[in-house]
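Dissemination and training. As part of the outreach component of the grant, students in the summer workshop were shown how a complex can be specified as a set of sequence lines and then modelled as a single object. The example used during the hands-on session is reproduced here so that future cohorts can follow it. Participants entered these lines:
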Amino acid sequence: MTNESLYQSLYRIRRVEEEIAKVYPTDKIKSPVHLSIGQEAVAVGVCEALETRDIAFGTYRSHALYLAKGGDMKQMIAELYGKDTGAARGKGGSMHLIDLPKGIMGTSAVVGTTIANAVGYAYALKYQRKDAVVVSFMGDGATDEGVFHESLNFAALKALPLIFICENNQYAIHTHQKLRQAQANIWERARAYGMVSERIEHNDVFKVYERVKAAVDALRAGQPGPYFFECMTYRWKEHVGPNEDYNLGYRVRSEAEPWMQDDQVPRIGALLDSSVRQPIEAAIEAEIREAFAFAEASPFPAQSELYTAVYDEA
Ligand SMILES: Cc1ncc(C[n+]2csc(CCOP(=O)(O)OP(=O)(O)O)c2C)c(N)n1
Ligand SMILES: [Mg+2]
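and obtained this result:
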């Protein structure tokens, strides 16, 4: 981890999502988009602590994790366009990104599902005595589901090499955590199942990196897992789509403002000399242009693809 690598990852995610938001109204993007703008620091801090061989499972708010873990931007944009060259051959859209060589095992529209998938994968790795670490991303809303509790219990019981990351942006669609949970103590619930658990305040990319790196190092050294981190963050855009939604009445802009003032992208950018920062930004702008041009030029899947890769027939 260096300030350069953190900034590269933060800026890349922010800028490509801003471009997605611009293109979205043209209807070239064929799937819904759940933007991570404002939340990038969590995925970036976590993934900076991981190696390519480590495994990540995520949610439909997938772009930040996919890119931070090393996912290919061309394949991501092509997937959003529903093109044959996309990460899921144009069949999954924004919510279903996957890049197996990069250890991105998949993201899902179905809230909570990938928590159990990650636990199963970590169980398999432990049996195979592989030293890779599994990371399971979830939203705060997913912690309302039974599968969250079942998965945490089993992971703790089996002491799995697994790190749970709860991206707590305080909302499940339009419902605040306080209207869904009698106590706002997700990290304490995790601890009750028998694992090291901690809340990381303030969307601080260095703090997220530091705490997750310590957990990864401990797991690689053979110490028992799992670990749980409740990472406090905030979604700036609407739940799904490219716009702001402070006029809907479920939240007010003044709630978002402190998070915006503490924006991690310029914060880390300011730590770099402009002679270092500008080439990073220029390279990413070129990558974004190429990714959209690639998606535009790519073909849609052939009609004969309609029934392929629907089931694993191995
Ligand atoms: C099993 C299931 N139940 C309900 C939904 C509808 N749904 C889509 S997103 C969402 C909110 C999830 O909130 P959270 O986990 O906090 O993630 P965030 O969108 O804030 O990143 C819900 C309830 C769903 N997709 N899957
Ligand atoms: Mg949420």
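The radius of gyration is 19 Å. Students were then asked to discuss how this feature might be tested experimentally.
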